[in-house]
Write a structure and sequence with these properties.
This protein is mainly α and 130 residues long. The chain has 4 helices and no strands.
Amino acid sequence: MKKIISLVLFAIVLLSGLYLDVSQITVPDYIDKIYHFTGFSLITILSISVFIAFFDKKGLNIFLIFVLIFGGIISALAEFVQKFTITRSCDVNDWIASLCGIIFVAAFTYFANCKRERKMELLEEKFELY
């Protein structure tokens, strides 16, 4: 059930992000960067949670590399699509803000996972019987 809920939530956020990407919304530049950072951070968090729900942290570091590459491509495409709308503009700074959101979440997840693995190694060494 957790897998289905996380997958549905991820799909809803992706569809709402797609809708917001092509909708005719006008916001000031500085707020636009916050929206990009927050939106792509949320999508990255949800994609990682879907991965963990299905694969239980096996291969998480490889998935984080995939998220960085694929997220960069998706954020570039999201900016490119805005080129064809009337009130939106294609801006490299928006793409950088999106990448910062993806990198922030991926780095936090990586370091949290490394800390958890190190703690597990220490516990195994502590209780190792000879």
